[in-house]
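Course assignment 3, question 2. Fill in each field.
Student: A.L.
Task: Predict the tertiary structure for the chain below.
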Amino acid sequence: SFSETAVYFKERFDLPLSLDEIKAVWTRMSIDKYRHEVPLKPGVLEFLKYCKENGIRTGIGTSNGSEIVDAVLTSLNVKEYFDAVVTACEVASDLAAYEKTGQYKGVYHVLHGAVNPMVGVQPENCLVFEDIPAGIMAGKAAGMPVIAVEDDFSADLMDEKRELADAVISDYRELL
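Answer field:
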């Protein structure tokens, strides 16, 4: 989780900052990067609109903190399309995040890396979209089918992503 990583960095690099200060610096850096350098993946907006119009619930499970997720969803202007968001700070691990969010029927998307468990649906009735191998493995371990998403940021991991996932897309419009 975000907090556990901060503990590791503080101890490993003997940082003089408090854990809260470390997380605050990372949060500011991440928000700035996401706002200015990380666009939506191709076809995501069309896909999210399709889901909303067709009553397909969507959620995000992420290892990022809630402040980062909120800033990203707001800056990308897609917050309204997600029914719920769960961060790793709210659960013990990414797997627990998938299991918690897996109670939603429909699409379960992890941006970077994504939900209040109120609907009560089995994991096999969810669909995970992931762009990194660790996220693909977490989704699979939680019993959810996973679609790997190709992107420039993890192009060097594509062979591993193909091997781990149930399917691969490069553009969300492929699903429409």
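Instructor remarks: The beta strands are 57-62, 84-87, 106-109, 126-130, 146-149, 167-169. The first strand starts at residue 57 and ends at 62.
Grade: pending
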